[in-house]
Amino acid sequence: MAVASKLTSLGIIVFSVALGLLSYYLMNDQSEKQKKKHVEEVISQLVNFVIFIWLAKIILNVGVFITDPLVVLAYPASSNAFYLAVLLSALLLFYKAKRKQLDMRSFMETSLHTFLVASFVYEFFQLVWNGDEYAFGYVSVLAVLLAVYFLIHGRIGRDRLIIVMLTGWTAGILILSTLQPFVAVFGYMVEVWFILLFYMISLGLHIFYQRKRGYNGN
Description:
about 80% helix, two-stranded antiparallel sheet, globular
């Protein structure tokens, strides 16, 4: 029963992300070659993130892993493992951007679109299918963010769009954290300090890329 529940949850995540990527591909007006490249980069980073999740589980439970590795690998990842995986992913993105192996602005734009759509689909499943009452607040926040995103997309510069949506998502999560016992992102409970750190790291990466490209404010 537990295995079936885990597989169902994983299936919902995969389905949600797939819809997010498909939505980006269908709604973006760039060339087919560019869209394919951006989607492939996001998928590559998602694969890296999954690897980092497994690595984080091992690092945080190294003593148990040495004696019984199967226990650690079979056990669901904790929020701490999720935090560490996000940090490792950020470091990898910074490294790739610094070596000009990644177009950070395009990656963040693609990731933002995918994340918002995938998160909405995932949380909607949690609300309707699993009856998770705490998902309602996050679904509402995501619905507002998606409405704003599609309303202003193409009307303001990509850099400003990314900053507006990052700030809006962070503000929404912080407000939710004061209204309910916890907030979960794809099933992982997130603390206020992590949300603020994630916002600063994301904004820092974006500003770093802007300066590397000689950002002129447009």
